[in-house]
Structure formats: C-alpha cells, structure tokens
Amino acid sequence: MSSWGWLLAVTGALVLACGLAAAWWASGRLPPRQGERIEQVRGQPVGGDASAGDALVVASWNIAFGGGPDGQPTDRHDASHVRARLDAIAQALVAGKADLVFLQEVDRPSDRSGRIDQFAYLFQAVGLPYGCFVTTWDVRWLPYPYWPPSRQLGRVHSGQAILSRHPITSCERIDLPQPDEYPRWYRRFYLHRGIQAARIDPGAGREFRAINVHLEAFSQPNREAQSVILRQVVEARPGRVVVGGDFNTVPGDATRKSGFPDEEIDFTTDATLARFAQGSGFRECLMDGGASSGESAGFTFPAAEPTRRLDFVFHRDFGDVRSAQVDRDARHSDHLPVWCTLGF
User: Fold this and answer.
1) What class is the 31-343 domain?
2) Which terminus of the chain, N or C, has less C-beta within 10 A?
3) Does the pLDDT at position 33 exceed 70?
C-alpha cells in the first residue's frame, strides 16, 4: 500500500474512533441501578393534619415534558412556553385537591424544555409536602433530528415523579427491559424505562404502596413483557396498592383498536392490560367505578381530540371508588389526567 493509502486508512480509522467515542459519550450514563438511592424531597405540611380523612384523591398525568397538547418528544420549547404549561398543570392539581399524583415524562434540566427542573418546579407549585423522582432517560446529547445539528435535542434528562400529601417512607426504581428488536447502539440513546415504587404512610394503619409506570410505546412484545414484570412487582407487595400511569395501550374491550387519525398503531392483538391484571385482584377506577357517560368519557389521548384511552389508575384492597373521571378541560399536555377518589 502506498504512503497515501496508509494516510487515508489511518485518517479513516481515527475519524471512526472519534465518532464512536463521541457517540458513547453522548449516550450518557445508564439510569440508577435497583437499590440505589432515589431522589426524595420533603417540604412543609399542607392543609393541617395529613392523616385526616377517609379517602385518597389520586391523579395520574403524562405531562409531555411541558410541551403542551401539540408538543412532541422531539420538539424544542423555550422556558417561557414550558413554564406556562407547568403552571397550568399545577393549578389543575391544586384545584382537584390531589393527595397522590403520578407524573410521567417529567424533564429535569434539558435542552428541549428550557432547562427547567420540572420535578422541582411542580413540587413547589403544587405544594404537596412529599415527592420522589426516578430517571428513565439520561443522555448527554440526543442527536435527533439528525440534520441539521442545530435542531438536535441535545441534553435530555427525564423520568417519573410521585407527589404526595402523606409521608413517602421509601421510593425505588425497578428496571424494565428495552425492546430486543432495537440495535444495541440505538438502545444506548433510548429510554431505560422503569417502575417507580413508593411506600406511603398516612397513619392510622392505612399504609399503602404507590406504583407509577410508563410502559413501552412502540414495541408491543416489549410492552407486554413489561406488564408481566409489573404484575410480579405488585404481587410481591401485599396489602393496599394503587398503580397509575401511561400504559400506552387501550382497554381490552375498546371499540376502536386501530385506524387512529393521529398515529399508525394497531392494538388488535395487544394483551398488555390482560397480562398485568390476570389474577392480581386489581380493579380499575373508570372501568369499575367511574363515569357512566360512555366509552369516550374515558379517552385520554390525544388531548386536543381524544380517540382512545392510554392512562389508567388500578387499585387493590382499598374501599369503594368514590369518584373517577378524566378531566376533559385540562388540555395542558398531549394526555388528559385521570382522577380517582378511593375510600380507605
């Protein structure tokens, strides 16, 4: 090989090595391993005695990174836009007098959402005295869209949060698998989804487990596998349990499972909810004790013109369902929030 050929070969190898090193650095660190310390915060008690009352008001809401009803995970929004959406979300949660809030798609300081710490912002704005957060996505630089680089999302740090009126005595992250069909390099940049499991103690012998989930959106086999793990997690935790979150699937008896105007997705053979609920003793607020005004009253997505239900609140060993609804007026995200009041 000529000297010119060697020069080209060495240069190519160096470029390749630098590219691989840059990709490895940009993909960031993996999220906390199971058992590692999870971020918990504690503020001032609100509303007098937090042990009072015989009911628990639960809200579950995918807040779409503060991007609003038309926002996409691949969009970038400035701080003023995000702050306005977060303020509206907080006001809705305060007005509903939530005791327990499950939040999904919550950004920590990220380039796509104005570098606002949304967990800290909402913890302060909602005013509930306890909270905890687990990471599901943490990359130093997300190179999407691929071109031009000036439009890329950059730094992304996101996850799930629980806010509570009652003391959170423990909070942990339980790993969920990524889709096997995605190549390894892609999974380095992809979400590392997890189950957020907290123990909450209102006193008077009313301790319960609160479990926050955001299941896989794009791979049905992976989503179904995650739902089995979720069932195993709740089966290992006896007593009162409430599970809320974005399951990214529709109920088994949904009238419409494909042909949605906003997305090409088919839930015809999806068994996510069936595999989770199988033999677990769970009930679901809207399915078993909610509004009787028809299937569409439970639709949560997309918020602007809902066509299906992706968000649920399941419960076990609580008392009656005092009320359950989807807030159709709270169009501050691409999902609508689910509300459920459970008797102890």
Assistant:
1) alpha beta
2) N
3) no
